[in-house]
Amino acid sequence: MDVIWFAVFALLLAGYFALEGFDLGVGLLLPVLGRSRDRRDRMVAAMAPYVLANEVWLVALAGTLFGVYPLLEGPVLFGLYPVVVAMLLCWIVRDAGLWFRRRLGGPRWRAFWDGLVWLGSLGLAYGWGPALYGAATGSPLHPLGLMLGVVTTLLLAFHGWTFLAWRAPALTGTARPGRALLVSAVVAALPALAVIALSAPHLLDHTTPGTTLNVLSLMVLPFAPVMLGAQVWVWRTFRPGEDASRTPSFF
Q1: 26, 46 Cβ separation under 8 angstroms
Q2: Which of 43, 109, 151, 228 is the most exposed place for a label (fewest CB within 10 A)?
Q3: Phi-psi domain of 207 (left: phi exceeds 0; alpha: psi -120 through 50; beta: other)
Q4: Cα(104)–Cα(101) distance, rounded to whole angstroms?
Q5: How many CB atoms lie within 10 A of CB 30?
Q6: Coil, strand or helix at 226
Q7: For every one of its 251 residues, what pLDDT tens digit does the chain have, with 9 covering 90 and above?
Q8: CB 192 within 8 Å of CB 21
Q9: What is the DSSP letter of 141?
Q10: Sign of CA dihedral 122, 127, 130, 132
Q11: By the 8 A CB rule, do 33 and 43 touch?
């Protein structure tokens, strides 16, 4: 059971980077590819159908950490406290930007919230570097952790570009097939997978007792098909069309 839940935790972490990663990547590219309000609207519309479903992976990941590794969660969060708080604020800022950017029509209003979408995406993408390094070594502000933040930012930006090239090629000037998006998803998840591999012995040593895992399995695992089914529905419903970036959106 310990190994099964470790595999679930690894899957959730990799899934977050593979799916929510392109949302962050699109946000990072707003100043680069979104040089007009219309282009920024089209970039946000391209990723809008996926945002809420993708964020579920982070919620599930946090729940697994708290439930399966409670002995590790306290020390890890204490050591990563500044990074975690900064990332939570960036998450709130990014989502606030997405929700409020179209509530009024003025150009300054839209530009302000678009700037917050970019800033929140940058903070989240970069913050994952120190967070992952700190989770593996206990030293979140180590120079290698800060360098890993640059790597995660660049990888997620590339993932976002590949997503746009697949779903809305008019925005990138080139088209990419679905298999290219799959490859970029794997590449975006590589830092997370590397940390999981390095942390495996430590995580397995701090797993909650087997009786608790059995209860968690009965409570949580039946909902896994629902989460996966929702993902399948979203991806089948919002396949690339003639101009997928013009999909109606509440963002």
Answers
A1: yes
A2: 228
A3: beta
A4: 7
A5: 22
A6: helix
A7: 778 888 888 888 899 999 999 999 999 999 999 989 899 999 999 998 899 888 888 888 888 877 777 766 666 667 778 888 999 999 999 999 999 988 877 888 889 999 999 999 999 999 999 888 887 776 767 888 899 999 999 999 999 999 999 999 999 999 998 899 999 999 999 988 888 888 777 777 777 777 777 777 777 777 778 878 888 888 888 877 645 555 555 67
A8: no
A9: T
A10: negative
A11: yes
Name the percent of the chain in helix, strand, coil, to the closest 5. 85, 0, 15
pTM of the model: 0.89
Neighbours of 212 (CB within 10 A): 14
Is 218 in a helix, a strand, or coil? helix
Structure tokens belonging to residue 141: 């502000």
Cα 188 from Cα 158, distance rounded (Å): 8
Residue 102, Cα to own-chain centre: how many angstroms? Answer: 23
User: For residue 116, which phi and psi values (nearest 5 degrees)?
Assistant: -70, -35
Q: How far is CA 100 from CA 50, 66, 112, 166, in A?
A: 18, 31, 10, 27
Q: Tell me which amino acid residue 186 is.
A: V
Write out the two tokens for 92.
């709130």
| Rounded distance between C-alpha atoms, residue 127 and residue 131, angstroms | 6
Residue for token pair 């839940």 = 5
